[in-house]
């Protein structure tokens, strides 16, 4: 529980405000004073000072100081109004007129004044009414603008002009370079007064009928299809996102059927607030209260799981993963496992047919991991799940992929038109005169929030009567007062003027709340502010009455019963008013208040860390408490990183670990964190980062035996993936024999042996690789570690594949598949399914299709983007071989929206996927798939990376019709495959394409050489044997010196075997080759039947280029 108080509230000595500063200086007074005695000059100055005070007071300003014959005044201190900038400019004009009159009265007609007015943020010393009340760059700039102004003129900066252009006319004064400014400043000269310048809220829904209708229709589409859909509402603050969400909630409430509503907010406080919107949704569903202790929360969660997840085994799987999400356990799971569990939770909520709705506020504050979760849920949901995302436009700049999902609709909210704004004002306040309404419409700039703030200001000033929903203007309301709130276009000034009406006690508490966050409890606020909780609750109720705060009354929301700022800009302005010292004090107080709660709400761990980080940022380098604060920050940052990693937000966790490591001064702790970061980077598929972290460990001099072995294992695996096989071997050299691993933990030793097996296999040292596989399996079994055992079996199967020992490979793959199923190894099960399907593609395509489909479905449902690509590749291989090319194109699109192709990292995962698409493009003559980044990579890099790149570049060249370039690239890819991981199914297709293009170009020597190369690797399976016959016959048919009997025998056998296997594309090419050869030998009847069959298959495939290649475009039944 949070203590009632933490001492008296911190004393505030300063705050930050947006103010307008005026500097005025006399021109010609020196000459005047030289002609008079000192006493007369003193009297003149005294009179002049009085005139200045009168003018400035008349316009609501405060004299800050006189400097000789210059005057400095400020507006917005101690109380802001929404027209401070205009008042300052008007005061400047009147000061000039007063000085002119003063000169005439005292025989100095040439006496003049020049004035500069600048608006910006300043630091304000609270309670001061004398010199030094305000400070900052704005003050200095005002003085320098004044010095540039011509006599008897007021010059202003761009911000002042923008905030007063409705009331003041200007002309450009040019661009000027000021001392202390890096860039020139645009200045403006006042040119008179613009025409007509004298002249809780129930908000009607205006202008958004189409958007609300779209929300409803997308929801109904999700319900009708029992699938996931998302509608993304994008707009600037104040444009109506929250209101549309509320309108849709009312609509859902009125439906005749049940809708299960959830709400959550992505916290924008800083990095590391992982899945906060999901935490909010789950806490709301289970009925969690802010004051619940851990046992109570656990009881509520278990009760909810029992209610919604009837299957005991499934409930036992989901429960610990939800506990991890809520911070109730320290369990750590892979992200794909968490995604699958959370998806299942939502699906069980909608299992009875009730649509599930999840409104996610502030989606622009989400990190990549959360957006991937949302994308996963929308794509994979098997029930009606409708996600509403409310976000600012920056989300489309930082995460453009969020709007590209096939089931996502994006709606951009623009400002309302003038007629719509007029309708809005008419609905807000009765009795508003058309002229006044038109001015307010103009000032609101099409932003509904501006209109709402204006009306709230009217209420605060007592200019309205009636109740909310039936407001009307007072009959005796002064027209100028009615227009007052609208005289600034700046929302910050508008809100500041409202906050100043609160009085010191209410305003400072509101600022304390702004430090804590958008939502908060009275209990936490009382602790953070050092006030009595009852006193705080009383003031909060007053702020609710003033429509600055609201009490969250959202069913099934974790924030239910808490207080929240009505609008985010209100919180931002309240926070910005605090001085640096006060921000630091309050961040520390917030961290102190939240620490006890972090024990029962894991998502608060990162918030505590961010409060401390912000406090440290505001702490001076020589502050005596800095060292202690640094240690406290590091402790909470590490806890935050661990929490984020446990939730599977790996990208965010890697950033957090890296940040801590950079600032850590404990070398042993740094070793531990580097190892964690290396593992995370490997899971993310970022080998360069893996190498950086792992190398830092074994070069640190502080790593123990296990740590160094583990680091070298990570580094070796990463460098191998990058194609740097010699570097990988060098890294592993300290463990060059099995005996060298004797002092290493069994599991780690197994992984090191596995790294050796992979490196030596890719180097073509198969026997050595097999010996290391044996070591890996022995150490894994000694540790009784299921994952290590599976990985050793899988590595043995890969070795058997390259050795061509098919029976052993099949046996090992089957053993690995059973082992993964029996031990519940989800990721390893997907890998086993992928490998088993790969081995069956050219043996039993139906079984291969089943395994590949299961692998892809399970991987995508579990968020395993990387390994999903391998299941995707195998499924597409089956579809290519069996002629299901349209389905192949559809399968190619099945990848997470966040996985764009155009990056080097994606080549490893999706190179084969793109190559298969380009094989189809080669046959069809359609546009090739060509990620620009891939074409810029080095094809001589070697290793598996180089082999995949050569395959891509070769198939791309073929699709573009460049046969000679394609042959060279494909041949190099095939040769490299034989020394890396064995001849894969993709490699066989590459080999096939290279031979076909060599024959097409008449290069029969290359074709014969390629045929011999496949014979050398000796991995022929059923389809491979049939393809070998087809291609042997194809090469022989192109050579007039070939034995006709052998040509015909090979091609007829190929047609028969390929037909039996079920490979229409290759069977049709064999028919076309044989038919053309028979036709050239005068056997037209036999040839026609074959050519007609081939042409029909080519048309079914859409293979127009193949029709042209064999001259069959006009061949019809």
UniProtKB/TrEMBL annotation:
Residues 20-146 form the Guanylate cyclase domain. Keywords: ATP-binding, Nucleotide-binding. GO terms for biological process: cyclic nucleotide biosynthetic process; intracellular signal transduction. Gene3D superfamilies: Nucleotide cyclase. This is Putative ATPase. GO terms for cellular component: cytoplasm. It comes from Mumia flava. InterPro entries: A/G_cyclase, AAA_16, Nucleotide_cyclase, P-loop_NTPase. The lineage of its organism: Bacteria, Bacillati, Actinomycetota, Actinomycetes, Propionibacteriales. One of its GO terms (molecular function) is ATP binding. Pfam families: AAA_16, Guanylate_cyc.
């Amino acid at each position: 529980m949070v203590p009632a108080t933490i001492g008296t509230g911190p004393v505030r000595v300063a705050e930050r405000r947006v103010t307008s500063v005026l500097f005025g200086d006399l021109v010609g007074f020196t000459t005047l004073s030289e002609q008079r005695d000192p006493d007369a000059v003193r009297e003149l100055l005294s009179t002049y000072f009085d005139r200045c005070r009168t003018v400035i007071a008349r316009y609501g300003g405060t004299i800050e100081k006189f400097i000789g014959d210059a005057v400095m005044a400020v507006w917005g201190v101690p109380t802001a109004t929404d027209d401070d900038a205009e008042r300052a400019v008007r005061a400047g004009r009147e000061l000039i007129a007063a000085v002119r009159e003063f000169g005439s009265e005292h025989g100095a007609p040439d006496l003049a004044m020049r004035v500069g007015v600048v608006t910006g943020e300043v630091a304000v010393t609270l309670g001061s009414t004398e010199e030094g009340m305000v400070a900052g760059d704005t003050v200095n700039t005002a003085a320098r603008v004044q010095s540039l102004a011509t006599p008897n003129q007021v010059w202003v900066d761009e911000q002042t002009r923008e905030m007063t252009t409705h009331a003041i006319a200007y002309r450009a004064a040019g661009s000027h370079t000021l001392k202390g400014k890096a860039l020139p400043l645009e200045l403006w000269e006042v040119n008179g007064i613009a025409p007509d310048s004298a002249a809780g809220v129930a908000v009607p829904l205006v202008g958004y009928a189409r958007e609300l209708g779209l929300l409803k229709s997308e929801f109904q589409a999700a319900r009708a299809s029992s699938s996931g859909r998302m509608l993304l509402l994008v707009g600037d603050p104040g444009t109506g996102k929250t209101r549309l969400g509320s309108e849709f909630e009312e609509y859902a409430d009125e439906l005749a059927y049940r809708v299960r509503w959830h709400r959550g907010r992505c916290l924008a406080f800083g990095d590391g607030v992982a899945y906060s919107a999901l935490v909010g949704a789950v806490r709301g569903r289970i009925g969690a209260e802010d004051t619940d202790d851990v046992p109570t929360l656990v009881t509520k969660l278990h009760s909810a799981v029992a209610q919604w997840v009837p299957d005991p085994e499934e409930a036992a799987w989901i429960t610990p993963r939800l506990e991890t999400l809520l911070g109730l356990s320290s369990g750590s799971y892979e992200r794909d496992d968490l995604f699958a569990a959370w998806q299942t939770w939502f699906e069980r909520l909608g299992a009875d047919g009730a649509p599930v709705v999840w409104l996610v506020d502030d989606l622009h504050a989400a990190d990549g991991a959360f957006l991937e979760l949302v994308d996963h849920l929308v794509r994979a949901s098997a029930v009606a799940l409708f996600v509403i995302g409310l976000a600012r436009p920056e989300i489309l700049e930082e995460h453009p992929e969020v709007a590209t999902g096939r089931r996502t609709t994006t709606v951009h909210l623009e400002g309302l038109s003038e007629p719509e704004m007029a309708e809005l004002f008419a609905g807000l306040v009765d009795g508003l005169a058309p002229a006044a309404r038109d001015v307010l419409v103009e000032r609101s700039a099409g932003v509904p929030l501006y209109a709402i703030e204006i009306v709230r200001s009217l209420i605060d000033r007592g200019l309205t009567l009636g109740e909310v929903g039936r407001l009307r203007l007072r009959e005796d309301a002064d027209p100028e007062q009615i227009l007052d709130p609208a005289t600034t276009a700046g929302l910050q000034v508008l809100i500041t003027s409202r906050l100043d009406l609160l009085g010191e006690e209410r305003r400072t508490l509101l600022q304390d709340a702004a430090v804590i966050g958008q939502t908060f409890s009275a209990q936490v606020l009382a602790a953070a502010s050092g006030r009595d909780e009852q006193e705080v609750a009383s003031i909060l109720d007053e702020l609710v009455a003033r429509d600055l705060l609201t009490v969250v009354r959202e069913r099934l929301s974790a924030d239910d019963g808490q207080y929240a700022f009505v609008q985010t800009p209100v919180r931002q302005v309240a926070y910005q008013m605090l001085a640096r010292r006060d921000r630091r004090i309050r961040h520390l107080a917030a961290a102190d208040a939240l620490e006890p709660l972090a024990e029962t709400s894991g998502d608060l761990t990162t918030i505590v860390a961010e409060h401390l980080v912000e406090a440290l940022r505001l702490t001076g380098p020589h502050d005596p408490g800095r060292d202690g604060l640094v240690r406290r920050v590091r402790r909470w940052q590490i806890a935050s990183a661990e929490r984020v990693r446990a939730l599977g937000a790996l990208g965010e966790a890697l950033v957090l670990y890296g940040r801590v490591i950079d600032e850590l001064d404990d070398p042993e702790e740094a070793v531990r964190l580097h190892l964690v970061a290396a593992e995370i980077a490997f899971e993310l598929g970022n080998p360069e980062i893996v190498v950086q972290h792992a190398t830092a460990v074994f070069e640190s001099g502080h790593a123990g035996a296990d740590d160094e072995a583990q680091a070298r294992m990570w580094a070796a695996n990463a460098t191998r993936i990058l194609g740097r096989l010699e570097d990988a071997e060098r890294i592993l050299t300290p463990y060059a024999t099995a005996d060298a691993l004797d002092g290493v933990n069994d599991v780690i030793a197994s992984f090191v042996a596995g790294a050796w097996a992979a490196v030596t296999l890719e180097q073509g040292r198969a026997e050595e690789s097999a010996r290391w596989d044996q070591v890996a399996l022995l150490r894994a079994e000694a540790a009784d570690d299921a994952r290590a055992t599976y990985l050793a079996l899988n590595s043995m199967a890969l070795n058997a594949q390259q050795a061509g020992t098919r029976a052993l490979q099949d046996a090992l793959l089957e053993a690995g598949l059973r082992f993964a199923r029996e031990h519940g190894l989800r990721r390893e099960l997907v890998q086993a399914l992928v490998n088993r399907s790969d081995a069956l593609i050219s043996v039993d395509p139906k079984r291969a299709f089943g395994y590949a489909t299961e692998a892809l479905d399970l991987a995508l449902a579990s968020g395993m983007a990387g390994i999903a690509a391998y299941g995707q590749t195998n499924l597409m291989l089956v579809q290519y071989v069996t002629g299901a090319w349209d389905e192949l194109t559809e399968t190619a699109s099945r990848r997470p929206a966040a996985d764009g192709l155009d990056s080097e990292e994606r080549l490893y995962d999706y190179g084969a996927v793109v190559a298969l698409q380009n094989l189809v493009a080669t046959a069809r003559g359609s546009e090739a798939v060509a990620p620009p980044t891939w074409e810029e990579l080095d094809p001589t890099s070697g290793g598996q990376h180089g082999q995949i790149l050569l395959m891509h570049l070769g198939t791309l060249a073929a699709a573009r019709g460049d046969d000679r370039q394609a042959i060279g690239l494909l041949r190099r890819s095939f040769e490299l495959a034989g020394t890396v991981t064995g001849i894969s199914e993709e490699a066989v297709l590459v080999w096939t394409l290279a031979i076909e293009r060599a024959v097409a170009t008449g290069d029969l020597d290359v074709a014969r050489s390629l045929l011999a190369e496949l014979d050398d690797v000796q991995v022929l399976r059923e389809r491979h044997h049939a393809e070998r016959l087809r291609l042997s016959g194809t090469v022989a048919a192109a050579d007039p010196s070939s034995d006709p009997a052998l040509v015909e025998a090979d091609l007829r056998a190929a047609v028969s075997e390929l037909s039996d296997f079920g490979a229409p594309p290759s069977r049709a090419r064999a028919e076309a080759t044989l038919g053309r050869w028979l036709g050239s030998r005068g056997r037209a009847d036999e040839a026609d039947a074959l050519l007609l069959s081939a042409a029909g298959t080519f048309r079914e495939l859409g293979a127009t280029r193949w029709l042209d290649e064999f001259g069959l475009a006009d061949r019809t039944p």
